[in-house]
Design goal:
This protein is an alpha/beta fold and about 140 residues long. Helices cover about 45% and strands about 25% of the residues. The strands form two sheets. It has a three-stranded mixed sheet. The protein has a two-stranded parallel sheet with strand order 1-2. The model has no long low-confidence stretch (mean pLDDT about 80).
């Protein structure tokens, strides 16, 4: 896979290529994400030096939780959106009492599926579907 820009369009292109690939490649991508979100981001997206430093500054728990959410979204072919503040003028005029914030919002919905009888035949089709959307937000706020 090629490297993408770390913006809304780059994430959309990455997801489009990923969902158009084989299940095996999608599973490999999930494993890479779960193994090390940091390494995966560096290999998938073009990051500036300051973005790498910021990524390093995030807590391990946050990165692990975010990796789980991304892998879950991929497993269920859910949309993933990066909502990133990109206006350099507004970020450069922020006071020293501001902090960069990363958060994620995960919306998961499981569709109703009929109960399968215990004695059902092995070739009976089971329709199980999860829907959702993962939004990763990066922005600044005043302390």
């Amino acid at each position: 896979m090629k490297k993408y820009t770390l913006d809304k369009e780059g994430v959309r292109q990455w997801l489009e290529q990923l969902y158009g690939s084989t299940i095996e490649l999608q599973m490999m991508e999930q494993n890479l994400i779960l193994l090390s979100l940091h390494s995966w981001l560096m290999s998938r997206f073009e990051l500036s030096e300051s973005q790498v430093e910021y990524l390093i500054s995030l807590s391990s728990d946050f990165k692990n939780n975010l990796a789980q959410e991304i892998a879950f979204a991929i497993n269920n072919r859910a949309d993933i959106t990066l909502d990133k503040q990109t206006n350099e003028k507004s970020t450069s005029t922020l006071s020293r009492d501001s902090v960069k914030v990363t958060e994620y919002e995960s919306n998961k919905i499981q569709s109703d599926t009929p109960e399968i009888p215990v004695e059902s035949e092995a070739n009976e089709i089971f329709s199980h579907r999860l829907e959702g959307h993962l939004i990763v937000r990066i922005y600044y706020k005043l302390l």
